[in-house]
């Protein structure tokens, strides 16, 4: 008789006992004194914790900032929601996990740096296209600003 995955339960026993029965091709992993046998040995057990909404929003705005959908606002919102998610996790550590909030904060900082770099490149391009300044042979920059009356 072959059991389906839904009927299958892992065989667990304390460390130091003779060991689990072999057969069936399951994997064995020893975690904190309990040997888990079977397909469940490769998966992390569900911890029962969830992601705060602020962490999910942080990830969304971080991605939007990285792909320049929201170049300035996205990273700022990602950082704000990411730090709010961290506060939620610190307030209720048994309920929430900060994975998405941390990723959103990292993406927010990277997107903010990319936005600043893109802004500097844009300013340099405008400066060169409008021919506002020229480089002199001694390495300094001579600015020619238009006369305003």
From TrEMBL:
Keyword Ribosomal protein applies: no
Residues spanning the membrane: 56-85, 106-130
Keyword Transmembrane in record: yes
Residues annotated as domain DUF4190: 55-117
Coiled coil (residue ranges): none
Alphabetical UniProt keywords: Membrane, Transmembrane, Transmembrane helix
InterPro entries: DUF4190
Name of one Pfam family that matches: DUF4190
Region (Disordered): 1-29
Protein name listed in UniProt: DUF4190 domain-containing protein
Organism for this UniProt entry: Egibacter rhizosphaerae
